Structure formats: C-alpha cells, structure tokens
Amino acid sequence: MKMISAVIKPFKLDDVREALSEVGVQGMTVSEVKGFGRQKGHTEIYRGAEYAVDFLPKIRIDIAVQDDEVEKIIETISQTAYTGKTGDGKIFVMNLEHVVRIRTGETDESAV
Prior knowledge:
This protein is an alpha+beta fold and about 110 residues long. The protein has two helices and six strands, in the order βαββββαβ. The longest helix is centred in the C-terminal third of the chain and has 12 residues, at about 70-80. The radius of gyration is 17 Å and the shape is elongated.
C-alpha cells in the first residue's frame, strides 16, 4: 500500500476531486496548508503599504491506495492540477506499512 500526498493550488481542488472520483478513488483527506518552494512567495499591497507574503496557501490531498493504483492516481492528479505556471505543486508517494479502520477493526487493504 502507498500513501499519496499531493500539494496543489487551492482553485484546482474541485477539479482534482472530481477527476479522482471518476477513476475510483472513494476517500481522501484534504487540508489547507501554507508553504513555498521555487515560487518563494510574493509581495502584495495592503492599504498602500507593500509587504511580503512568504507562505502561499495550498491544498494538501492525502490518499491511501493499493500499489497497483498509484500510477493512475498520479497521472490523474498531474493532468488535472496542471496550469503550466510556477507553483502547480508536488506529489509525494510513501510506503504505507499498516492501516486500521477504527470502526470495524479491519486492517491493511481491507481498511482502505
């Protein structure tokens, strides 16, 4: 099993969620996060004063999946979240050692 964690632009969330549903993803965790990479933040003007915004708002999507679904999900997220501009995001894939469904006690693949 794998944990896919994708960091995307906030306005792409609905499109990505719909695309993932179409390829069979039944559940995900979504978090509002802030960060920066090569984008390095930006400056804004508020009430006539310029100030730096060091951390940019992003959305993080976490999905636990079977090993054979990883490439399909990465491709779906990549194509849907793509704008061609700096800050489109990143996708991380990690090994998932153990999963437990709290309500039923099911473990591993049957808990996903």
